[in-house]
Amino acid sequence: MKITFYGHASLGIEVNDVHILVDPFISANPKASHINIDELKADYILVTHAHQDHIVDVEAIAKRTNAVVVSNYEIATYYQNKGLEAHPMNHGGQWDFEFGTVKYVNAIHTSSFPDGSYGGQPGGFVIEGEHKNIYIAGDTALTYDMQLIPLKTNLDLAILPIGDNFTMGIDDAITASDFVACDKVLGYHFDTFGYIEINHEEAKRKFFDSDKDLMLLEIGESIEL
Ligand code: NI
Ligand code: MN
């Protein structure tokens, strides 16, 4: 499983030659200006919630690639109404896709579309694929619901928001890492806007002092699990 950070909360995941994008917010992110969305491959686009900073490029990429949008019922329906292919899910439900199993799990946040219309309830994804399991938390507060995840899934990587203000910050993300029983964390949702700028060295040191590993990737950088 290969994971690429495209800035903010945008990820590329490659499993067995299947390309998955998560929460594409790239063309509107000045920090990601070196990423061309017209060159990104996508068979599926996973959307955690409807906020602007998670959906800006969904339509353009899905139209070009015919990718299937996977999200909650309201967001999936919104894109189906625009003529895109979508797979609706809801909290606690899982589905076996060609690349692995996806479960839509709870997040504590909100989920309106940029025009104010209802985007359902926000979520995160647990992906079990190619003998590697990851948790993409989405925008969320720290929540005890995270403790449900390791009851079923041994995670190899937890992708957690760390920017604070709109989501968990560093200290809560360290607790979240305990809750999901995964000490290997990829941080996201930081630095994009003034409200969520973080001190990278301090963040990494806090994780290190808790016997955990916080990875912060450059935009466009990949890791292999
Ligand atoms: Ni959000
Ligand atoms: Mn966000």
Ligand roster: nickel (II) ion, manganese (II) ion
What is the helical fraction, as a range of percent? 10-25%
Give the helix/strand class.
alpha/beta
> What's the β-strand tally?
14
Uncertain regions: pLDDT < 50 for 5+ in a row?
Answer: none
What do we call the CATH homologous superfamily? Ribonuclease Z/Hydroxyacylglutathione hydrolase-like
Described by the principal axes of the CA atoms, the overall outline is globular
**DSSP strand content:** 25-35%
Elements, N to C (H/E): EEEEHHEHEEEEEHEHEHEE
Question: How many domains make up the coordinates?
Answer: 1
**Terminus-to-terminus distance:** 5 Å
Lateral strand order in the biggest sheet = 6-5-4-3-2-1-14
Relevant terms:
Metallo-beta-lactamase, Chain A; 14 strands; hydrolase; UPF0173_UPF0282_UlaG_hydrolase; seven-stranded mixed beta sheet; binds manganese (II) ion; hydrolase activity; binds nickel (II) ion; Metallo-B-lactamas; alpha/beta; 225 residues
Q: Layout of helices and strands, plus pairs?
A:
Elements: E1 2-5, E2 11-15, E3 18-22, E4 44-46, H1 52-55, H2 58-65, E5 68-72, H3 73-80, E6 86-89, E7 94-97, E8 100-106, E9 123-129, E10 132-136, H4 149-152, E11 157-161, H5 170-179, E12 184-188, H6 200-209, E13 213-215, E14 222-224
Parallel strand pairs: 3-4, 4-5, 5-6, 10-11, 11-12, 12-13
Antiparallel strand pairs: 1-2, 1-14, 2-3, 7-8, 8-9, 9-10
Bound molecules: nickel (II) ion and manganese (II) ion (MN).
Manganese (II) ion (MN) binds next to α1.
